[in-house]
Design brief:
By secondary structure, the protein is an alpha+beta fold. It has a domain of about 100 residues: SCP2 sterol-binding domain (Nonspecific Lipid-transfer Protein, Chain A), CATH 3.30.1050. Helix content is about 40%, strand content about 15%. The chain contains 24 helices and 21 strands. The protein has an eight-stranded mixed β-sheet with strand order 1-4-5-6-7-8-9-10, covered by helices on one side. The chain has a six-stranded mixed β-sheet with strand order 11-12-13-14-15-16, with helices on one face. Strands 19-18-17-20-21 form a five-stranded mixed β-sheet. A hairpin with a 6-residue loop joins strand 5 and strand 6. It starts with 13 loop residues before the first helix and ends in a 14-residue tail after the last helix. The structure holds zinc ion. The site of zinc ion has 7 residues, from loops.
Amino acid sequence: MISARRSGPGLGLALIAAVALLGSCRDGQSGGGEAAGEAGADAAGFSAPSEATRAANAAFEAALPLEDPIDFEEADRGLVAREPELEIRSATGRRWSPSQFAFVEGEAPASVNPSLWRQAKLNGRHGLYQVAEGIYQVRGYDVSNMSWIRGETGWIVVDPLSSVESAAAAVSLARKHLGDDPIVAVVFTHSHVDHFQGVAAVLPETGTGSAAAAVETVRIIAPARFVEEVTSENVLAGIAMGRRATYQFGFGLPVGARGYVDSGLGKQPLTGSSSFAVPTDAIDHTPQPMTIDGVEMIFQYTPESEATAELAFYLPKQRAFCGAEIVSRTMHNLYTLRGTKARDARKWSGYIDEAIERFPDVELVFMSHHWPVFGHARSLEFLKGQRDTYRFIHDQTLRLANQGATPREIAETLELPPTLARHFANRGYYGTLRHNAKAVYEFYFGWYDGNPANLDPLPPAPLGARYVEAMGGAAAVKQKARAAIGEGDERWAVTLLDHLVFADPEDAEARVLLASAYDQLAYRAESGVWRSVYLSASSELRNGITAQALDARQAAAILGRVPLELFFTAMATRLDGAKAAARDPFTLNFDFTDLGETHVLTVENGVLHHARRAADPAAVATVRLTRDFFLRLVTGQVGLKEVLLSGELDLEGSPTALVAFFGLLDGADGNFPIVTP
Ligand SMILES: [Zn+2]
C-alpha cells in the first residue's frame, strides 16, 4: 500500500481493494485444469462451441451493422503515440500487457458473441490520444482512462487509474509527448477504485521539505462525500462481494477465445498498488463553475447515479463534456452482479438530461472509460441514447410491474426500441437489459415478487433433491438436460442441472454437463460480465475454486485505514449470534493507547453493540492495546495465547472473558462455493 500525502482518515477500500488482490490469475496463467476431458474441450476444460451457439452467434452477426467503421475511426482518432511493447509490472512481480489480447482480431471465433468481440477490439486499443486542442487521454493502460487537460502553467489530470503502476506507465507515456510542466490539479470523477487508486503516480513525491510543500499546491477536486463513500462503500458486505466479484470480473479465468475476452467496459487491469489522496475541493451543486490554472470548468454534481459520489464537467472552450461514468460506450449497470445496492435509474437518466440542457453547444463527449464521441450531432445523439436507455428501462419496468408483471416476466418481455438498440453504445456489454430491469424492480419493490409461492420456498439443496426425485431420478434429469442442450435450450438445462448438482454435488457427470451448458451461455453472451460469470461457474464446477481468497494480512494493511467505529460495526457482523445469545450479557473496554480512544463493547441478545465513550467500570475486562496490535489480533496474525503473554497488550480483569469474546467471532476467508452447496 503506497500512500499519497494527506492520506485519508479512512481509506476503507478494505474489501474492495482486497478484492483486487484476487486478481492474480489474470497474469498469464490458465485458471483451469484438464480435469473435464470432454470431446472438444480446450486445455482449461471449456467445451467447444455447439451448433446452436454457432447459429445463435451467426444470427447476432447478421442482425447488427458490425462493419460500421465510425466507432473504430473515433477510437483511433487523434493517436499521438502508442507503445507497441507496453508491459506494466507490479511491485509484487505481476505483469500485464495488452499483447495478451492480441488474439482479438479479425472475425469473431464461434466461442465469442460477435458484438462483444467488436467491443473487445475497440477496448484493446491503447496509447496517448489528442481528443481536442488541450485535451488528451491515455487509454488502454487500465480498465479506465486518464485524461490530461492543458492549463496555463501545467496540467489537470482526470482519473488517475486503478493502480499506481498503471498510472505511472500512463504518466510516463504522457510526459514523453506532453512535456514536464507540473500537474496542478487532479479530478476524481467518482468513488470507484479504478478512478483514483493510482493517484500517487501523478502527485509529486511525498516527503519532507520542499517536495512536501510543492505537493500541497496540487488541488484535488472530487464530488462531495467522496471520502465517506470510498470509506464506507462495501466494507460490511465486502467479503461476499469480493467472492462474487471473482465471477463478475472473471479473475480466475484464462485469457482467450474460450476464456476472458473483455469486461465490456475495458480490459481488467494489472492488480497493483493502491494509493489515495484527500480532496481539497468538493463539487456539491450544479452548475459549479471553477477556473483552474486558467481553465474554465463547469462542474455538474451527479450523486447516486453510477456511483454514490460522482461528478461530470464541461469545458466551454472546447465545448467538451466529460461525462465521467454516467455515460459510456455501453449500457452500464443499474445493478452489478458482484452485489451492490440497485442504482437510481431515474436520477441517472435525469443527470444526462440535465447535461444536454445545460451544455447545448456540446461538440465532444469524453469519458472515464472508452473512446470519445466527436461532433455536435453525434454527441447529442449519444447523450440522448444513454439518457433514454436508462429512462426506458426505468419507466417500462414500472409500467409492466403496475400491470402485475414480476421481475423475470419483465426481463423476458422488455426489449430496447430499435432506435436505441442499433447504437452500440446502448447495448449490454457491461450491464444488460435483463438484469437492469430486475434492478429497477428491486429498487422499488425489494426482493419479493408478491407471489406467496416465492415467499418461503425450500432452500436450494433440499429443493434440488425433491425436484430430482419428482423428475424420476438423476439419470432422467441428465437425459432431459442433454436433450435441452442439444436443442440449444441451455437456460432450461441449467435449471435442471442446478437442481441435480445441489441435490448431489458429488455427481461428476452432472457437474460437467452443467459446466458445458454454462460454456454455451457464455459464448453467446453479448455482455462481457455475463460471459465471465458463466465461465467462472463452469470453471468452478470442473476445477473447484481457483481464484484466490482474501489475504487477511494484505487486507489488514488496508483495514488499518478504516475508522475504528466502522471496524467494530464490521466486527458485529462476524458475531455468531446464536452462540453469543446463549451467554449472559457482558461488557469489554478497549482502550487504544496510541489513539487515546476508549471503545466499549457490549454483547447482549446475540448482538454486539459498540460505543466510543469512557470505560465502563462494570466491564469484565479492560484491554489496553494499540490499533495495530488490535488489527493483527482480529485478522488472526497473532494468536490468543500470544495476546495474553504479549507485552503489547495490557489486560485488567478476566483473561477468560477476553478469550471467550474472540471465540464468538466467525472467521471468513471468502472462499465459499457458489455453484455447489
Ligand atoms: Zn470505472
